[in-house]
Amino acid sequence: MSRERLYLFDTTLRDGAQTNGVDFTLADKLAIAAMLDELGIDYVEGGYPGANPADTELFATRRKLKSKFTAFGMTRRPGRSASNDPGLAMLLDAQADAICFVAKSWDYHVKVALETTLEENIASIRDSVRAAKAKGREVLLDCEHFFDGYKANPEFALACAKAAYDEGARWVVLCDTNGGALPHEVEAIVGAVVKVIPGDHVGIHAHNDTEQAVANSFAAVRAGARQIQGTLNGLGERCGNANLVSIIPTLKLKADYADVFDIGVSDAALARLAHISHALDERLNRAPNRHAPYVGDSAFATKAGIHASAIMKDPATYEHVAPERVGNRRKVLVSEQAGKSNVLAELDRVGIKADKDDPRISRLLEIVKEREAIGYAYEAADASFELLARRTLGAVPDYFDVTQFDVTVEQRYNAVGERVTVAMAVVKVKVGDDSTISAAEGNGPVNALDQALRKDLGKYQKYIAGLSLTDFRVRILNSGTEAVTRVLIESEDENGERWTTVGVSENIIDASFQALMDSIVFKLVRSKAPV
Ligand SMILES: [Zn+2]
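Above: the input record for the complex with zinc ion. Below: its predicted structure, written as tokens.
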């Protein structure tokens, strides 16, 4: 029996960027787009070219993704021609595979917010879709406030959607922009729409204002829609968008959907879902939701007692799906064996061959547990994990030794009477028998330390010349009575390879130093620098 294809559209980088307190840099956007691509999302909406410099830069270069990289923007302005609208021109010029237009579909909004006629609104949709098709782009139309609009004036809401479809838009997406629609309403309205526009051209974009964005997405699919729009971890303004991290496992693991639909997410990618969800939180520098369905730390945790003993006999007794399927773990007395298989899977992922009976695997597991208990986050710091594993299993050469460092921060008035802060670092490094002392200034103590460390590594200097730090994230953790600082550093090399390292200490400079050292040593290992 052949299954029907259901498409996933991620708007973490556009709608999710509206979240309070979320501010994506270009580097963030590229890294998140790569994660979404790895996951198997069909469409990745990157942003709104022209809306801010980061989004404009994002779309200035063609991004090589398997996902269709999508630019978002408005249809042509009322009263203007498509060829005489600078905003539309910018969107059409964006280096994107697809363009997602947003247009009004609620008559009240057209009259009050746009101050134009219903006919002009529909003409604007037609012209914009036609212009984007002429540019060779795949076209989507987000019908803003579709459900409210349909309740107020079904003929007009449908006419907006139909105009886009008739002009050749691949998808017409019905948006519950205010997030107030209920599942039975969504099911009924989508059911009416698919009588006019084939369901395999209809999408759903739900907001979570009644905690039903996921349910509304499924209601739309049941009624015939074949594209779901959402975000990682349900990011989005107010109460967020439909959470793809909850939707994907349901589509993959619940027979009612899994038997009927195919999605672009493979079983192997599904097993990385928890990791991807946590990686996004790390990037946003916020603690993951322990109670998140499927991927939360507590999603498969059971307190000891009768539940625990039943689970030991057969996990299916208390679990609706197997946690490993989504990359999560059972939290009942995590057995040595279970922990070991996690470590083995992680080693396999970073390309280290290991024998499961090797006693050093148990040792590595112990070290990881000890260090995670004091604040290290190896799930987020792949390069530090790899180094730890290589050190435990074999050998990472002692390329160089930092015998001493000194960092000073000075605040003073400069020649024109401005208060300035200057940081300086002095580092003593031993490479083989040669000792060198390097000093550097920086815009902060960590930056100065980084500059000094990488200034002169003797014979290794050429291997780290292309190394640069792309991100630096600090979190204060409360472990017991003492607060400790965790630093995550993301680095990039001349080939565009990226990796993340971690350091933990009561002292932020020391934590940063650990992460910087791991980054440099990782680069040397990767470059196969000779000892
Ligand atoms: Zn939205």
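Notes for the reader.
The longest helix spans residues 508-526.
Residues 194 and 290 are 38 Å apart (CA to CA).
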